[in-house]
Design goal:
Layout: E1 5-8, E2 13-17, E3 21-28, E4 32-40, E5 92-95, E6 105-114, E7 133-142, E8 147-156, E9 161-170, E10 176-188, E11 194-199, E12 209-212, E13 216-222, E14 231-238, E15 249-255, E16 260-266, E17 272-277, E18 285-287, E19 292-294, E20 297-303, H1 306-321, E21 335-337, H2 339-342, H3 348-361, E22 365-368, H4 397-406, E23 410-415, E24 419-420, H5 425-429, E25 449-450, H6 456-470, E26 477-480, H7 502-520, E27 525-528, H8 538-541, E28 546-548, H9 555-565, E29 574-578, H10 592-599, E30 603-606, H11 615-637, E31 639-644, E32 651-657, E33 663-670, E34 681-682, E35 692-695, E36 701-703, H12 704-710, E37 712-713, E38 722-731
Bound molecules: alpha-D-galactopyranose.
Length: 732
């Protein structure tokens, strides 16, 4: 096997490379670790093309040096810190015993290991065998305090991917406080980038935003305690002319579900400096001698062929090497969820006909959503009391689960494990479990509060309660929800000086709870959720192979939500449901066909009262379900392409092609209708040009090159929100 990482001793250059990408870093004057290059693979790097020496006013020099041409302020670096002569926003800030933030990191040594070491307690990308990746660990040390930073870089053999993380080790004799620690930094010279980010709001997640980067610091962050609806932990840097199919695209996804901060700084020399890590807002970490702090990891991809290629690299990486669930390669069950069908107003008798209808329509799982536990008839009570609400299920939950199973459906159940209502037995018994600052009244949100999940005692209590429900063996799936963000930040087990650890300890507590759950119930399908897509990130993917993309189920809004989501996350991770029209969130009226087609681009489900549907609609749902069963292998696991965006045009077109190019699915949604419309075509991509493909509905046959070069005329039809789906199979 070829080596993936080399060290050139003479030039002191590390080269991480495979057939697609190269990443170069070098040890420069004063043992400074410099960034040299990240991009298209370089086979013959001789070590001479380095950052030039220039005397720059107001960018100072190495301590004790008379050389005015070398400055750690202008040099592209791998890791900048506060307290040295570098005015960029620092990747790390460490408060020393003397009160200063002085930290001067110098290169010490390195190690190259086969494969990829695990990050204890944190989600991370992994390898299945040690041949598929190599990891470089570079040690940087602050001589005075003996605080060491271990920078870890992994390169995969067959992916355009580098992963990065940092471990801080206190090898000194004094306790220090970390006030900021990014998982990575990268500096680019002579790039006029734009950033692409995924901001949003509840029921309005992950809209694509493309912005110019001017001199100054641009921050994309969350300090809500979770990765958030408001700013997804993903960013791409692209050239101005980069499109879906051409140009450079650098992608960054943070494998973390709590506060995050993406900083992009265009400096005085138009160099672009990037830090990604845990947000330093209300963050500090006490590092006693001999202890260490491990940051979460960042996944970085490079594409020379635009955004689709970048997304495909993330899709396969997250699917193959972040998601661990047994379900990762199984087609996902089509479900019906009772939330929008009944909200809290249900009991066993009301649900049974929905189950019966689901069976008749070919649906494969019934999910019992919020309101089955404690005495929960609305959202004011019972979070924290995970035992069945007997008024709604007089014969118990097992009895109802049996009924669902007898109809041949799987049974799924909703939980919101991180929360507590004041009106609950849990609060009566353990008021201290509710996260609050002593002596202050905590703020409610949806009239509920967050558990102090950093405490093991709290996690044990919740795990035991969930265990009692799950050990019956009758639950096939759970939906793990989280319906508010953190406030009143305080962990009861920590002393005053360490309260800055609370946010991160909460996330570590969450991961611990999820880890226990996936280890105890490896056959359980877990769907993540946080008021829709409020925690849709690569960290949660490690535990939850699928996540509810948004509480907004309107097909037209979903065009943008799912479009943005697909920039980083695979189709199989995104759940998407057909709901009623007019839509409950925005009142829009759309055809059932369109709702079905849009929902088929994720893991399909239904979220409406099936018993109230007209005869025609019931028949249409049956047909949708049957159609989806034919295409889901390809829509969930094929190579995905964005062809047209509804954010920038009147159409949205998506395509997926099986790995062997023998099958493809294409859909086109026309948003607004117009009189005398211009004719439009949709050209497919990624097919085998020499193959012949048969449309599975019309049985017409087309050449692969015909579909790609000539394209299909989009139908002309009256009415807004019309959608079309095509399923092609190659014929011999
Ligand atoms: C959140 C979820 C919904 C539903 C409700 C129940 O908003 O996103 O799907 O489960 O909670 O309270």
């Amino acid at each position: 096997m070829n080596q993936l990482i080399n060290f050139d001793e003479n030039n002191k250059v590390f080269h991480l490379h495979n057939d697609q990408i190269s990443y170069l870093l070098a040890v420069e004057d004063g043992n400074t670790l410099a960034h040299v290059y990240f991009g298209k693979t370089i086979k013959q790097y001789h070590g001479q093309l380095r950052y030039p020496r220039v005397d720059r006013g107001f960018s100072g020099n190495l301590p004790g040096s008379l050389d005015r041409t070398f400055s750690r302020d202008s040099l592209p670096k791998e890791y900048s810190t506060a307290g040295e002569m570098d005015y960029h926003t620092p990747a790390a800030v460490v408060r020393q015993k003397d009160g200063s933030n002085a930290l001067f990191l110098t290169y010490q040594d390195y190690k190259i290991v086969a494969g990829k070491p695990d990050l204890a307690g944190l989600p991370h990308s992994f390898v299945e065998n040690n041949d598929e990746a190599e990891t470089l660990i570079v040690n940087l040390l602050d001589e005075k305090s003996k605080v060491e930073f271990e920078l870890a870089y992994t390169i995969y053999r067959d992916r355009p991917v580098i992963t990065r993380s940092v471990k801080v080790v206190n090898k000194g004799e004094e306790t220090v406080n970390i006030e900021k620690v990014a998982s990575m930094q990268i500096d680019f010279v002579d790039r006029n980038f734009e950033s692409i980010t995924l901001p949003g709001a509840h029921a309005h997640e992950r809209r694509v935003e493309r912005s110019e980067i001017n001199q100054g610091i641009h921050v994309y962050s969350s300090h809500r305690g979770t990765s958030s609806h408001q700013m997804n932990p993903f960013m791409a840097l692209v050239d101005k002319d980069t499109t879906e199919f051409s140009g450079d695209a650098y992608g960054f996804a943070f494998v973390y579900s709590g506060n995050h901060k993406f900083e992009v700084e265009k400096d005085q020399f138009a160099q672009t400096h990037v830090n990604i890590g845990i947000d330093d807002f209300n963050f500090s970490w006490e590092l006693t001698p001999n202890s260490s702090f491990q940051t979460p990891e960042v996944l970085m991809t490079y594409s020379a062929q635009g955004l689709n290629k970048m997304s495909q690299a993330f899709h396969t990486l997250i699917h193959d090497r972040v998601i661990r669930s047994k379900y990762k390669d199984r087609v996902r069950p089509i479900l019906v969820n009772n939330w929008e069908a009944t909200y809290f107003n249900f009991d066993e008798e009301k649900l049974k006909p929905i189950v019966d209808d689901a069976k008749e329509m070919g649906i494969e799982m019934f999910v019992l959503d919020d309101g089955w536990f404690g005495h929960r008839d609305d959202d004011n009570s019972s979070l924290g009391d995970w035992s069945v609400f007997e008024k709604k299920f007089p014969h118990g939950l097992d009895h109802f689960a049996d009924y669902v199973h007898e109809q041949g459906l799987k049974f799924g159940l909703w939980f919101e494990p991180e929360m507590i209502s004041m009106d609950s037995n849990l609060y009566q018994e353990h008021p201290d479990y509710l996260m609050h600052v002593p002596g202050r009244t905590p703020s409610p949100s949806r009239n509920q509060y967050v558990l102090d999940l950093g405490r093991k005692e709290v996690r044990d209590n919740i795990f035991e309660q969930m265990n009692k429900i799950l050990e019956s063996g009758k639950i096939d799936y759970i939906k793990w929800d989280m319906n508010r963000h953190l406030s009143d930040i305080y962990e009861a087990d920590l002393p005053a000086a360490r309260q800055g650890e609370t946010y991160h300890r909460y996330v570590l507590g969450l991961y611990d709870l999820l880890e226990r759950l996936v280890n105890s119930y490896p056959d359980l399908l877990i769907e993540g959720c946080s008021g829709g897509g409020g925690r849709f990130d690569a960290g949660m993917a490690y535990y939850n192979p699928q996540i509810w993309a948004s509480d907004d189920s309107d097909a037209i809004d979903r065009l943008s939500i799912q479009y943005g989501t697909s920039l980083a996350y695979p189709q199989s991770m995104m759940t998407s449901h057909v709901s009623v029209s007019p839509n409950e969130q925005n009142g829009r009226i759309t055809p059932l066909k369109t709702r079905g087609i849009v929902a088929m681009w994720g893991d399909l489900g239904y979220e409406l009262d099936l018993t109230k549907m007209s005869k025609e609609d019931r028949q249409a749902v049956k047909e949708q379900v049957a159609e989806y069963k034919k295409i889901r292998e390809v829509t969930q696991y094929g190579t995905f392409y964005r062809l047209k965006s509804a954010q920038t045009s009147n159409q949205c077109a998506w395509e997926t092609v099986s790995k062997d190019k023998t099958e493809a699915v294409l859909s086109v949604v026309k948003v607004m209708a117009s009189a005398q419309p211009y004719l439009t075509k949709t050209k497919m991509v990624g097919l085998a040009p020499e193959k012949h493909y048969e449309d599975q509905n019309t049985h017409e046959v087309y050449g692969g090159d015909e579909l790609m070069n000539l394209g299909i005329y989009d139908p002309v039809e009256h009415g807004d929100f019309k959608a079309y789906i095509y399923h092609f199979k190659a014929i011999d």
